[in-house]
């Protein structure tokens, strides 16, 4: 904020002993000054106010008489180098420290100006801090900053997701209580940075930096930075780099070697919202054991993706991942698919028989998708295979030992099915050892931009397009939409936009009509809030959004209402009603 000399008023009126009483009275009566300094040879000797003038008149002093030495000797002086932080009184007279000559004054006017400036700077500082906090929390890298004693002072949301502890809980704690296996205390002791180090966190190998913070020759803290979510991320970068270099070379020579199935990692399951981060944390722990996993969630949330990641990063990763969709196989064929059969077991059985899925999954993982659609008779046999770890082919007499890990998935409420007798209770409890629920997209809309970003690069490569962008108004509608089909629907919508739009920028008018059906969106918003006031507020927001969309589409079609109605997926009559309603 500075010193007094930067703020003092140097235009103050001064009095001398030769000034007439009427002059002093007139200057004070103007109201600009509460009191005036009385100086002699430039040095302040007294202060004069209205009361002093009135007292002089009552004492018999004439108006035209010099004021002489009237006034008070009680006043406060400070020097020009005085800090304004220490101002707590006014008026204050500023004098030169060496000559004692009066230089200026600090009055209520200056104090008010200082206060206003302080408020403005505080507001600006708050805004800057908010931007810093947003950047800190938005950073892809996990960031943790500690003081010289190892106490966490700053902790961002990215790191919070990995350790499963909120920022509020982490800040103020010793770093070793929050980040397992951390070496930050060692960096604080040695002052030596550790860059690009492998750090095992939540059963996952990650790449981190640990850097000391130096000030005046002392280590005053340290920064822990999580650079890559997993080592496989680096491998992906190198794979992409190799693919690009190959394209730059001779693209005409293509390898005829079969491409092995790419392993799935948890980093490839895109999402940074608390809901999906917690799910990934549980899944990482599940991958470290052979215990059965029961994955629940609506259709399209990515249950198989999680199952593959659990297998590919788990202790059974060297075996096969065998997937069975129980809802897609007819009941009369399901058992032969699961358990296999011997030669001649039934009409049409292939020569030599056939291995079942459980045999194929030996030393690996069997994934039973949509297990809620499995017949009760087959459920009983599945239960026996899980308990006995052996399987009998249809038509066979000898049990075949199998060692596998089972992961099941369903979009149904198995507990409710158990109560209704539609699913075996004993099988449910056999599967429900490590439950894993995947949240629907509507509960993790924060992840939509990240999901879109990941899919855009894939689609650009698939369709041979250099780049395609999405308008921010489209993104706003994506955030409004209910997404009943979850991530699968989002990916399908993106591919449809790629296939049907010729321009490199996707606009609102390119979206399918379901995104403009206000009734559906409004119904969701109404059902998702129990409070009438909140519903009304959201309805106003939705109407404003709809108005903006209509305006934008009309602009794009240059006012052609027929074309606008077609793009919006409504009739012309409905469009005219909305135009009248919104006064467009």
From TrEMBL:
Entry annotated with the keyword Metal-binding: no
Start and end residues of each Sigma-54 factor interaction domain: 269-499
Keyword ATP-binding: yes
Highest taxon of the lineage: Bacteria
Keywords: ATP-binding, DNA-binding, Nucleotide-binding, Transcription, Transcription regulation
InterPro entries membership: AAA+_ATPase, AAA_lid_NorR, CBS_dom_sf, Homeodomain-like_sf, HTH_Fis, P-loop_NTPase, PAS, PAS-like_dom_sf
UniProt domain PAS: residue ranges: 128-173
UniProt name for this protein: Sigma 54-interacting transcriptional regulator
Originating organism: Sporosarcina soli
Taxonomic path: Bacteria, Bacillati, Bacillota, Bacilli, Bacillales
